[in-house]
Input
Amino acid sequence: MPDIQAFRGLRYDLGHVGSLSDVVAPPYDVIDNELSDALHEKHPANVVRLILDRIREGDTDQNNRYTRAARQLKTWRGDGTLATEPDPALYVYHQIFTHDGVDYTRRGFMCRVRLEPFGEGKIYPHEETHAGAKADRLKLTQACRANLSQIFGIYPAAESEAQNILEAEIAGVAPTEATDHLGVVHRIWPVTNVEVISRLTAVMGPKPMFIADGHHRYETACNYRDHLAAAGNLENNHPAHCVLMQCVGMNDPGMIVLPTYRLFRGLPEITSEELISRLGDCFTCNVAGEGPEHAGALWSEIEVEDEQGTLGLYTAADDRWVLAKITDTGEGRMAEIAEDHSQQWQGLGVSILHRLVIDTLLGATDLPKCRYVRLVEELVEGLRNGDTDGSRFPLAALVMPATLEHVRVISEQAERMPAKSTYFYPKLLSGLVINPLE
Output
């Protein structure tokens, strides 16, 4: 793994803001308009005003969401809302949550990690990125000169040795705590013991790191560093050589990977019979139920079977669900059309859905971006209520997520999965620690 560094983070002074729960927020890319409004109204110092300020009528190049965020950050640093850690620290970060009736604690730590271009070191991406999101985050970074949110990195840790070093250091120490809008409890402890930090760095040294979440922000950090270097403003010890990262062992009991379901736009409507005909001998298919509300029962069946090549497909034209299971013929076709990818990539459910079903068998390339939803209830609601413009979604898909082992193997082969192949739950909070880049 690249160089791990302690740093003097910016943190909310609870004497100024009161409850930490009132000023934190989930990552910018999961904040919709409704949640944005709620966060803006919750507290005048909520971090949403930095990571995703509202676009306002009359915004210009000189006055916009990025410049406002920069001014807000400067004001909060000046008036004591945000205080600088007295000593360089690593930050132990626990998330306590419930999933499917089971209680979990996900344990990790935040630090600065020295940047490496993908493909040139031991930091690996696993998903594709989009230029628009990186351009947006670069403007924000250039304006604020800070990492406002952490990258989510995972690493092999069979014995949890690195995390255990930190857990021993914080034993009996009261954390700073926040509860998010989903009820997840977030706890943080600064660790400043130089000897402990040194031991941790030695243990982490040889390990690879895989980006679980925050690909756009990681590549943005590299672009920001390169921007400073091109302008001649990048000394060897400049903090822009690093990025804020949360590091979690891949064997941690709290590492939960959830599916992301698809609501497709731009496809011609087809019936279940027509869909089955188009899938041909690449899948064995049967009509599995009717109505959006059948999604829950069908997903339970798919989840229990736990096969990447099993898909649930909804056709709005006749309000039916089709259960489709890839055949040997389908696997052979997938190998032909994705010969530029590894066998592991070809076998992913999301790869099969997008490359074989959508692009090839339905011939629907260059579609508008589909709506991604995490919960079956959200999928059902989308099918019932339609899109934001009132139109209905012609096709929906239930698909298994990639596993942590898929992330490791495919990433090490320098491949990237289709977007939204994984959903790591719960999301990391923004506003717990800010990493200044000046």
Remarks:
- The longest strand covers residues 102-114.
- The mean pLDDT is 95.
- Residues 215-230 form the longest helix (16 residues).
- Residues 260-400 form one domain.
